[in-house]
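dude i think i finally got it to work??
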Amino acid sequence: SATDLEDIRLNELETVNAVLQNIALILATPKGSVPFYRDFGISNEFLDKPMPVAKVMMTGEVREAIETWEPRAAVRNVSFAEDPLEPGKLISAVEVEIVAER
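look at this
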């Protein structure tokens, strides 16, 4: 989960854990915030857009970022839930399949 970033282990040896950890890091990083890797992460261009538009834009950003930065994972589904305590906040859930090492 992207909310578990405090539990990151560098040099994770188990492939599934390493891939999921990398995806969480990708999704938690705003594009443009990493020096020398300005394309790493996801764009926040979907902020302040109507919810249907934001979902479509965010789905594309999530898929593209994972395909670019974690080739060991194939995105199968991106879904969203809305936080009833924070209207307008989207919570994404990304289903991936771990594919062969490339």
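Helices lie at 15-28, 51-69.
im so relieved honestly
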